[in-house]
Write a structure and sequence with these properties.
Elements (H helix, E strand, L loop, with lengths): L1 E4 L2 E2 L4 E2 L2 H8 L4 E2 L20 H16 L5 H20 L6 H9 L3 H6 L4 H19 L28 E4 L8 H18 L15 E5 L4 E4 L15 E5 L3 H4 L2 H12 L1 H4 L1 E5 L11 H8 L3 E4 L4 H11 L4 H7 L5 E6 L2 E7 L4 H4 L20
Parallel strand pairs: 1-5, 1-8, 4-5, 8-9
Antiparallel strand pairs: 2-3, 6-7, 10-11, 11-12
Helix pairs in contact: 2-6, 2-7, 3-4, 3-6, 4-6, 7-9, 9-11, 12-13
């Protein structure tokens, strides 16, 4: 399970999912904070774990989000060349490239690269100069630590980012909501998850290529993945995964991110993936085609009590029967309306056993606890 947690518990100075993550894995959440600092984590968009083409797409997305516009063909070509050179130069030094290496390569193009594109070196420099300034602004430098992504995406990937753990919580509560940093950070995490976390893997922990092919129809030659003699697994079974997005309006409200998650949803069955998006109000989310597409793919919808205007807007946007609007306003605490496929369950009660309550108690700041000891009131 992976959780993108953007909802902070002020009294605990961490996200709401941190306690649950620790209880399952014994590990602290992967916390991101502008400027970094003690306990903060970093994910490197130039990490070799991200395949070459996807890495180019990702760095281009970062630059375009920082610019607020799409790169033209000349700037896009200069950026691709700079990414290749950044990999080469960092490799020659025996280290992993980072975004600052890309910015440096954009400002120091090589004559041979310019000639291959039938450009002069000065023309190739001009093509990529704006992109280099954007990366400088986002990542900062040794002299300037005020970049939007400083301490989060400007260095090597932290060792604590273990995507093989049973549950990993990405704590984004310190990242300003609605800003470019949140948008870019979620985009990088999403690609990182797609390239590393969602790679095909059997429940026994081995890759598909380690399993024997078993022919199931000799006429057509159709086959399936069968046993793995080395692990003792009798049949390949895709590992199941769950992605939880808390306060998902941060993601669904951004067309680029909504489009990225729409891809997750489209291929969820092949990935063995379940996606859970949690929002307080659908009115927090824009009405872009990408968002609408993501909402339409929801197989299960759970709605708790809402006020009249919000309930009516929710019912209209989700295409629910008109009678459900009034019903939603009357739901009691802990009871929700569920829509599973085309079937509506008007009153599903959600229960917590005592052992679970401390893991999801998020109302500490609103609670006035008093002693029940008569001798020590």
């Amino acid at each position: 399970m992976v959780v993108l947690d953007t909802k902070e518990q002020k009294e605990r100075e961490e996200g709401e999912w941190a306690a649950l993550g620790r209880s399952l894995t014994g590990k602290a959440p992967v916390k991101f904070a502008p400027g970094g600092g003690r306990g903060a984590s970093c994910i490197n968009p130039m990490d070799p774990a991200i395949a070459g083409r996807r890495q180019v797409e990702l760095v281009r997305t970062i630059v375009e989000l920082g610019l607020g516009k799409v790169l033209d063909e000349f700037a896009g070509s200069a950026l691709r060349i700079a990414i290749r050179r950044a990999r080469q130069r960092a490799g020659d030094l025996g280290r992993t490239p980072v975004l600052a290496d890309v910015a440096a390569a954009l400002r120091s193009p090589e004559e041979s690269d310019a000639k291959a594109k039938q450009r002069t070196r000065d023309e190739l420099l001009a093509d990529g100069l704006e992109a280099s300034y954007v990366l400088d602004r986002l990542c900062g430098s040794e002299q300037d630590a005020t970049g939007d992504l400083t301490g989060m995406l400007d260095g090597p990937t932290s060792l604590g980012v273990d995507l093989d753990a049973d549950m990993i919580v990405f704590d984004l509560t310190k990242v300003p909501s609605g800003g470019v940093a949140m948008t870019i950070l979620v985009a990088v995490i999403s690609v990182f998850l797609e390239e590393v976390w969602l790679r095909p893997l059997c429940e026994c922990g081995t890759e598909p290529g380690q399993h024997d092919r078993v022919v199931v129809d000799s006429n057509s030659g159709a086959w399936e993945l069968g046993p793995n003699p080395e692990s003792g697994c009798r049949r390949y079974t895709q590992r199941k995964r769950i992605l939880v997005c808390e306060e998902a309006w941060h993601i669904l409200g951004t067309p680029q991110l909504a489009s990225l998650l729409e891809k997750f949803l489209k291929f969820a069955r092949g990935y063995g993936l379940s996606c859970i998006f949690i929002v307080h109000h659908l009115s927090d989310i824009d009405d872009s085609p990408e968002t609408q597409a993501a909402l339409k793919m929801a197989d299960t919808i759970v709605i708790y009590s809402q006020k009249k205007a919000e309930a009516e807007a929710t019912v209209t946007r989700l295409g629910l029967p008109s009678w459900t609007a009034e019903h939603i306003t009357r739901l009691r605490r802990g009871i929700a309306l569920w829509k599973v496929g085309e079937v509506i369950y008007p009153g599903v009660q959600h229960l917590l056993v005592e052992a679970e309550q401390h893991l999801c108690f998020s109302s500490g700041s609103m609670t006035d606890l008093t002693s029940t000891d008569p001798e020590n009131p």
